Amino acid sequence: MSQIQPVILCGGSGTRLWPLSREHFPKQFISLMGQASLFQQTQQRLEGLINIQPAMIVGNEAHRFLVQEQLRQIQSQADVLILEPEGRNTAPALTLAAFYASQGDPQSLLLVMPSDHVMLRPQGLKQVLPQATLLAETGKIVTFGIAPEHPETGYGYIQAEGSEVLAFKEKPDQATAEAYLESGKYWWNAGIFLCRADVWLAEVQAHAPEIYSACQTAIAEGSRDGLFFRPQSEAFQQASARSIDYAVMEKTQLVAMVPLDAGWSDLGAWSALQNMGEGDSNGNLIEGDVIVHDSKNNYIKSTSRLVSVLGVENLIVIETPDAILVTHQDQAQNVRQIVDILRADARSEAEHHLRVARPWGFYETVDLGERFQVKRITVYPGQALSLQMHHHRSEHWIVVKGTAKVTRDDKQFLLGENESTYIPLGTVHRLENPGAIDLELIEIQSGAYLGEDDIVRYEDRYQRA
């Protein structure tokens, strides 16, 4: 059996899982089912497969250090991380990967996997991969179909007879989904594909030539920096934003389907998570610090405080430190409309959590008021913030765990637990963790303006602007 090149797509934004999923920390990087994130589970899923090479990952430039850190946490390796300068949907993402892979072997077998899905029985993929490989080696573009368990309106469907695909169907209404289920001829579209790189590129050239041309130039004129490969930005932006299904799969004559029984869900909405869990005797599925009384068939998730519900049915209640979602289960697919409103109002809740990931670690906003802000900062071992200066704020640092190496103008010194220092406005400074454990400190900012854009960077190992 041929060697398989996995391609993990992780550029999505997961807006239907707001407020837990945000633009700068989307659902694929969140632990929704188990301890590992969905991205980490996708990467670990490959370890049980045969003839698998290290993965190619295609993701957003803004998430590059998030991907790198999550790989480090599970002690896993990737072949390359192709960084999209902006999201253009899945067809351009796969086309970038196909051009990159074809530089080594034009007939590379690409196993394309979204990073934001779950498989409760991943051995199911291992069982059907030999059959799918034989089809892909002959020039077929293999898609994997899931036998529907209920009339789901949030998934696309595949109409098939045996391995022959008759049609791809968009997300149906309830009546149509019920008819699909009853007929036995329709399968959920898992969005997982196996094909040769040259076959995919030929079909893209035939059915979406502007995507082909844009990605061909973007790879040819791109550059590699360690794990990262950056396609040429201006060329890639000429690619139209289209999905794999819309750009190619609905038009090609080369598609074949293999059934997949792996406990699959795309976790595309809060209702999908509810369907994956087991509720109490009243059908309530609860996570976190939750009290439920005289209520039925609700999904309630708390991440930071007590949530109580009384006398309600069929609701979804999601609590995070800075936002709470309450919606009827019938509206679960429409949560992105709230995100659209937040973006139109330029509200930070669409993009960031109170906990914000950075390449050196993360920070959490503890308190925020007029002319002051309190943050809890965690710096991973061996990492360092940029050498920087602020025009509008001063800072006071208090170490609560680990050891800090501080640069303050022309001085360098170490701080241990319960020690502190003051960074006056206009002072050039840097914070580093020289130790073997996480550095945790409390930062108290004060000044007329406390925005994250009040940073002048003089030196940065992560090559940020």
List the helices and strands and how they pair.
Layout: E1 4-9, H1 38-45, E2 55-60, H2 64-73, E3 78-84, H3 90-102, E4 109-114, E5 118-119, H4 123-137, E6 141-146, E7 157-161, E8 164-169, H5 174-183, E9 186-196, H6 197-207, H7 209-220, E10 223-225, E11 228-230, H8 233-236, H9 244-249, E12 255-259, E13 264-265, H10 270-276, E14 285-287, E15 290-293, E16 299-302, E17 307-310, E18 315-320, E19 323-328, H11 336-344, E20 355-358, E21 361-369, E22 372-379, E23 387-389, E24 393-401, E25 404-408, E26 411-415, E27 420-423, E28 429-432, E29 439-447, E30 456-459
Parallel strand pairs: 1-2, 1-4, 2-3, 3-11, 6-12, 14-16, 15-17, 16-18
Antiparallel strand pairs: 4-9, 5-13, 6-9, 7-8, 7-9, 10-11, 18-19, 20-21, 21-22, 22-29, 23-30, 24-27, 24-29, 25-26, 25-28
Helix pairs in contact: 3-6, 3-7, 6-7
Folded structure, characterized:
The protein is an alpha/beta fold. It is 23% helix and 34% strand. It is globular, with a radius of gyration of 24 Å. The longest helix is centred in the N-terminal third of the chain and has 15 residues. The strands form 7 sheets. Strands 1, 2, 3, 4, 6, 7, 8, 9, 10, 11 and 12 form an 11-stranded mixed beta sheet that branches. α3 packs across α6 and α3 crosses α7. It is built from 11 helices and 30 strands.
In short:
The chain has about 475 residues and is an alpha/beta fold.
Strand content: 25-35%
Alpha-carbon distance between the termini? 46 Å
What are the low-pLDDT stretches, counting only 5+ consecutive residues below 50?
Answer: none
Name the structural class: alpha/beta
**What general form does the structure show?**
globular
Number of helices: 11
What does the radius of gyration come to? 24 Å
Strands, total number: 30
Query: Biggest sheet, open or closed, and with what strands and sense?
Result: 11 strands, mixed
Mean pLDDT: 94
Helix content: 10-25%
